[in-house]
Amino acid sequence: MQELLWSLNLLILAVVLLVTLIAIAVIAYNRFIVRYETEWVAWPDEADFIEPIVLLPDNPKRVRILSIDGGAIHGLASLEILHRLEQESGRSIAEMFDFVAGTSTGAIIATQLLMQDEHGNTTSAEQIIQNYHQLSDKILSAPLYHRLLTLNGLVGPLFLNRTKFQAARLTYGKLRMGDLVRPLLIPLHTKMALETRVFRNWELLDANTYLAPLVSAATSVPALFPSVRLLGSVRDDAHYGDAGPFLNSPSHYAFVHARVHNPQADQFILVSVGSRVQVEMSEEAAKYGGIIQWARPLMAMAFNGQSDVNSELLTHLENVQLYIHLNTFHLHVEIPKQWDSFNKTDAAAAAISHAGKQYATDNHDKITQIVELLTAKDAPPTMRPDSSK
Q1: What is the percentage of the chain residues whose pLDDT exceeds 70?
Q2: What whole-number percentage of the chain has pLDDT above 90?
Q3: Mind listing the pLDDT tens digit for each residue in 4-63?
Q4: In this predicted structure, what is the pLDDT of residue 36?
Q5: Which of 35, 198, 335, 336 is the most exposed place for a label (fewest CB within 10 A)?
Q6: Burial class for 291, CB neighbours closer than 10 Å (0-12, 13-18, 19+)
């Protein structure tokens, strides 16, 4: 019996020592060893500034607005819808819309859709789809030792910025917001002041923001990525991050800015694309659940809820606007709960793409209606909006 107690004490001591060593390793790694790339020069010298983009729709009486939600790998579903719009119309997204907004993943998609190559051609949704999974794989990667020593993101950012910065440099080079072919709005979260900062390429300073650091900051999800400190000689530097957790759908921002800057227009068409996360809770968990049971549902509620509020608000605006006609279309794909936003496996990418394609097929009539409105030569006459959308 005494030998058993002695062995048990030794085992307890060994466990305590092991836990202590792990704790020391975790603290040392996260506080003294790991080095995150967090700073990037985002603005050139003021003498090298270019002019901002002109806020002018193709038809002065009509403004066509595209809003793209965040969602990490779920952005594939949004891209499938945009691809269907291009297929149905025979035109690029840049041709069909006058004004674009994107949060997080939506910023990645929006900026690439509005980029021109050396021949003046913009990027298609299909081209982005072909590279999207590979891009996500690079961004959502971290060495195994980093995952272990951050306790899978519990005590430090789960991912490193290094590969994301590399991908951004390869994608955007030295392009600036002002080099894009359409007005673009990107909301970011300032992590030090806990405020929202909206970048707009029709303003001089924002037009000269390099896209690579800007998009890297716009996709730095709190707790998953380190914040990005944007540096430049013309402004105070600040730490920026992903606005998705509280502003996943920028549709209302997009409409307000489009309305304010186009007072002559009386027809507004707003298309919001994104995804919704299916999360279910048992009755017992809903009644008695704590932080562990509610952690994932609360995140889904934040993302889904903000999009729902925007959709409801804009739908009601259709019926109360006295001087303009507003058409809103909310194309949000339901994503099965097993495919979360940061699941970068081939199976997840295939399932999410399929969900987007299926949604586009099931809503073919709505997509046809959207294309007809977007490609009409003249702004359609004012009419009572269809409340069924």
Answers
A1: 83
A2: 43
A3: 777 787 888 888 888 888 888 888 888 777 778 888 999 999 889 999 998 888 899 999
A4: 81
A5: 35
A6: exposed
Helix, strand, coil percentages for the chain (3-state, nearest 5):
50, 15, 35
- For the ranges 68-82, 190-204, 230-244, the one whose mean pLDDT is highest: 68-82
Q: How far is CA 66 from the centre of its chain?
A: 13
pLDDT bracket for residue 204 (50, 70, 90): very high
Nearest-angstrom CA–CA distance, 231 and 213? 9
Looking up tokens 């041709």 gives 95
**CB 72, CB 136: distance < 8 Å:** yes
CB atoms within 10 A of CB 30: 16
Mean pLDDT of 257-261: 89
Nearest to 274 by CA among 76, 55, 23: 76
**Phi-psi domain of 25 (left: phi exceeds 0; alpha: psi -120 through 50; beta: other):** alpha
> In the 8-state DSSP scheme, what is residue 209?
S
Q: Which of 202, 158, 212 is nearest to 34 (CA)?
A: 158
Q: Which residue has the tokens 């202590």?
A: 20
Give the whole-angstrom CA distance, residue 181 versus residue 115. 7
Distances from the Cα of 261 to the Cα of 50, 99, 145, 366, angstroms: 21, 11, 50, 28
Widest CA span of the chain, in angstroms? 93
Q: Are 210 and 175 in contact (CB under 8 A)?
A: yes
**Pairing mode, if any, of strands 238-242 and 228-231?**
antiparallel
**Does residue 313 sit in helix, strand or coil?**
helix
SS3 assignment, position 115:
coil
What pLDDT, on the 0 to 100 scale, is given for residue 382? 43
Q: Which residue has the higher pLDDT, 366 or 4?
A: 366
Rounded to whole angstroms, the Cα distance separating 127 from 137 reads: 17
Report whether 344 contacts 73 (CB < 8 A): yes
Using only the alpha carbons of the chain, give its radius of gyration: 23
User: Taking the model in full, what pTM does it have?
Assistant: 0.85
Count of CB atoms situated within 10 Å of the CB of 281? 14
How many helices (DSSP H) and strands (DSSP E) are in the chain? 15, 9
